[in-house]
Amino acid sequence: MTMTVFGLCGAALVGIGLYGLIVQTQPLRRILAFNLLGGGVFLLFGVIARRGAIDGLGSDPVPQAMVITGIVVAFSATALAISLVVRLKETGREDDEGSA
């Protein structure tokens, strides 16, 4: 029962993040939507990894290590993306017009 709730929450986060990526035009909101999408994927991956532990089998540490590594990489990518958005705002260039 609990894993089903976590799975549904993960799927909802993926859906909301994907919706935000498609609909939003502001760069900061797109970054936040991408973080929601990534959080949902991490949650779904953790639920899939824990499924064997519920049935009485030992849980596999490899997916857990991959999720932790993914969280660290997502944090650093978010910091880089936010710094690039701030740099674009400082130079006065319009982000959402698509001018090259």
From TrEMBL:
Any matching Pfam family: Oxidored_q2
Where are the coiled-coil regions? none
Into which family does the record put it?
Belongs to the CPA3 antiporters (TC 2.A.63) subunit C family.
The residues that cross the membrane are 30-53, 65-86
- Could you read off the lineage of the organism from its UniProt record? Bacteria, Pseudomonadati, Pseudomonadota, Alphaproteobacteria, Hyphomicrobiales
Topology in the lipid bilayer is annotated as: Multi-pass membrane protein
| Protein name from the UniProt record | Na+/H+ antiporter subunit C
What InterPro entries does its record include?
Answer: CPA3_antiporter_subunitC, NUOK/Mnh_C1-like
